Structure formats: C-alpha cells, structure tokens
C-alpha cells in the first residue's frame, strides 16, 4: 500500500490481499519495472482521489437528505416506526409466515374445540352428580 501526500510518496507498505501470502506480494513487487511502478503509483493516486471525491459527494448527499427530512418533519423515531412497520409487512407477506400462521390458527382452533368438549364433559359430569 502506497500513501501519498502533496509532496509525493510518504511510505510504501506491502499488505497482502486476502488469500495472498506476503512472500508472493514482495516477489511480485520486485518483478515490476520502474515504468510499471510509476504507472501503478499514478493509478493508485487517481483511485485514492476518486475515493475522496466520492466520500465528499456522499457526505453532501447525506446532509441534503437530513435537511429534506427536517423540512418534512421526519425524525428518527418516525423513521424507526416506519422501518419496523415495513419490516413487519415484509415478514407477514412471506410464504413461510403465511404457512406458519395458518398452521397455528388451525392448531388453535383444534385446541379450542378440545377444551370446549372437555369443558362440556366436565359440566355434564357435574350435572350427573347433582
């Protein structure tokens, strides 16, 4: 990884990418010609500059978004409620939720019917005892 300042190259650290070993990175850097190194340094500086520009644009967009929300009276609590509502709607629209809900509903109806019949049997027994 090469870091640049307005004066030029600050330092050069070789950090291997995921799955790459340090020895391979060092040997690859040694095989580059000076011209290839210069090209890569220019590309690196360009990409770093693009990243900085994109970060600044993103920050400006986020400030603009916050301003629009403020003008609309949207606050964090309202956003949280909207997110929860949307998430709940997403969950309830899934096939798995619908199947589970139907199964639980049927189980509840069967349990209710069973309790009802047990209750009527108990009531009948009490009436017979009297």
> If you compute it from the alpha carbons, what radius of gyration comes out, rounded to the nearest whole angstrom?
34 Å
First-residue to last-residue Cα separation? 93 Å
H/E element order: EEHHHH
> Level of helix content?
over 70%
Q: How many strands, which pairing sense, and closed or not: the largest β-sheet?
A: 2 strands, antiparallel
Number of helices: 4
What is the total tally of β strands? Answer: 2
User: What is the overall silhouette?
Assistant: elongated
Strand content: 5-15%
Mean pLDDT: 77
Uncertain spans, ≥5 residues at pLDDT below 50?
1-12
SS content category: mainly alpha
If strands are numbered along the chain, what order do they take across the biggest sheet?
Answer: 1-2
Keywords: Coiled coil
GO cellular component, one term: cytoplasm
InterPro entries: TPD52
Family: Belongs to the TPD52 family.
Structural notes for this entry:
A two-stranded antiparallel ribbon has the order 1-2. Helix content is 78%, strand content 7%. It is mostly helical and 130 residues long. Strand 1 and strand 2 form a beta hairpin. Among the domains are: 43 residues; 43 residues. The longest helix is centred in the middle third of the chain and has 39 residues. Keywords: Coiled coil. InterPro entries: TPD52. Belongs to the TPD52 family. It comes from Nicator chloris. This is TPD52 protein.
